[in-house]
């Protein structure tokens, strides 16, 4: 397995990781700012560099450059496998009745024999991440691990872009199937949030729109908790994600937006009625520690080149502010210098809870997938 | 950005005055300052949030305390109720447990026990009802069975009295007649009472003359009164309407009962009957009827029980005065059917007053009775077919009708009757209802297929409305109730023969 990274910064490309490929790379993952991803010349450059590779594009809320985080850049990671075959599939949400159907259709195109792992990069604005993941799980009988994330749009939540080769558009969802006997995938996903306050029940919601908790207006509850910070909604609501327990599993949901007119809150993932909910709060240390924990979970002792794809929540970036690099440093500390790091800040992270549990759409986590060959 | 106050103090304390000349140190201090400020902001936000959570927890705790108080109180109340339900039983174990589930379990057991008992009670009630029904059925059947031969005895003694006899035979016949009449009254009482008890008695509401009714009762009882040296007086209100609508027969039965009781328990005294209109609202009249005697009176305690069946003021009374003890019970229940109730005022040795008020509607005014009684009873010229399966009934009717010079044919069932009617031209058919081969209703229906004019009169022991309706719908024109009193029978036959002479049947 060989990996090479290029970065587009201030209008020019430079090499991050120098590597001469023994055989042409099968896959290029290009994470970048929406404007650059949309710009045809970005793709053209990469096509010239990697004429035979499948080039995957994905807009972000911040690109991860080793242990630094930048905006208005692109980071392209080219991967050449020794023993592993990759199969990319592209669909667009507009061709399907909904995200659940799209998820099913997407993975149904994979040959199941020898399929070890699927990496998913999805539109983060038009696609309902929870439904997409549920559709994929259903079609795969929860047997194949999936990880990945939803594309971002800086802090703006307006539109996102995902592409396979020259087809770069809103509503795209790309899945890459990994086949082979000598590939190793390790996952780690951790938030670092702490629950507090009474356990409540979601009493009125519609998919990812929340109206009532315990029969009372949810927005009013948040305002009460935010105190004077209520005037900074929806941004200030990032400090209090919601822990949701459904079907015995606990996941975290970030507030994306509020709707004062309808007195509702829009979350980055479904908030089903009847689920138990509890407010969460974090301090920086815990969030940073969580990134280290995720890295430990994804760490592997396999020798040689390794790629760790770090997908972290835009919510964390907004909270960390200037200190965002601390979580990348914490991850790097664990992953070691020989591991190549790529990734981005997203509108939702997709990862299994553990190697044995079905994958979920997460919020507010640092999700790390480490790919290696042996 | 302004430096955090703690950092300011620390810089002053630990760094040389010219530290800002070191660019790296300036960057470092800026990073530290940001950390301090972030921590403070985060701290403030956390503090606020935790305070709110604390408030919420306090509210929840208070709610729980209130609920626990309510729960404890409820359990206490429940336990009290449960212990009261099972006084004498040991319920300590429940009180000790203080657990609703335990109590619920206990109550469940109790509920199923109660249900079982309830089931047993229901079965017992059903059995008792069946037994009671069987008893009254038996009583009713027996009474009917006794009545038929008794009827013959009465009829025969009546006929015998019409013949010439030796003086001692006359007296014997008189005693025979009175005894059999009394027996008949007793049986009628029993039948009445049974009918009332089983809810089968229906009032027959039609116009009647109250004045005539009362006057006749006075007439009928004056001989008995005189025998005991009593004066029987009647005070009639002139405002009583000529005709009222009600069950005159049953009303007469009640008043007769009160008057005859008064006579029975009074010697050498006065019995005063008072009938007056107490109130009038349009055509509705509140009639007040009082029967006051100067007899032996009734003690306060006994006044409660004399209306119970088979109860008399004392068992001595039964021996001394006779009677069934049913009369007052029947009167009371008949009045209840008429939406009235009987009042009693009495003291021992001071006489008794029985009274009741009754709302009756005024009825249409009619002329006097169409015929008056002639001294000599004679129905000669009429040709009547009598149908009855019981030989002695036939014998008696033949004797009675013979007295009145009626030409008659006798036969034993409906089929024979049908044949006879086809062959002869009768003025009237007297038809028993229950007969073998073909009963009265069936025979009437058959006759009506070819003869719609011939008057057919039923003999029936049943005079409830349902039976009468059936009888009319079969095509009969009237009825005579068994047992027949020859006087009543004569009047009825006279009336019916006359009526059917005049009126064309449809």
Task: Describe the protein in words.
With 374 residues, chain A is α+β, with helices and mostly antiparallel strands. Chain A folds into two domains: 2-190 and 285-373, no CATH class; 194-281, no CATH class. Chain A has eight helices and 27 strands. In chain A, the strands form five sheets. In chain A, strands 15, 16, 17, 18, 19, 20, 21 and 22 form an eight-stranded antiparallel β-sheet that branches. In chain A, a hairpin with a 2-residue loop joins strand 15 and strand 16 (209-213). In chain A, helix 6 runs parallel beside helix 8 (325-335). The radius of gyration of chain A is 20 Å and the shape is globular. In chain A, 55% of the residues are buried. Chain B has 506 residues and is of the alpha/beta class. Chain B folds into four domains: 1-98, no CATH class; 103-197, Signal transduction histidine kinase, dimerisation/phosphotransfer (DHp) domain (Helix Hairpins, Orthogonal Bundle); 206-362, Histidine kinase-like ATPase, C-terminal domain (Heat Shock Protein 90, 2-Layer Sandwich), CATH 3.30.565.10; 383-502, Response regulator (Rossmann fold), CATH 3.40.50.2300. Helices cover 57% and strands 14% of the residues of chain B. Chain B contains 15 helices and twelve strands. In chain B, the strands form two sheets. In chain B, strands 1, 2, 3, 4, 5, 6 and 7 form a seven-stranded mixed β-sheet that branches. In chain B, strands 9-8-10-11-12 form a five-stranded parallel β-sheet, sandwiched between helices. The chains are: A alpha+beta (374), B alpha/beta (506). Chain A binds chain B through residues 196-198, 224-229, 239-240, 279, 281, 283-284, 321-323, and chain B through 34-35, 38-39, 42, 45-46, 48-50, 52-53, 56-57, 60.
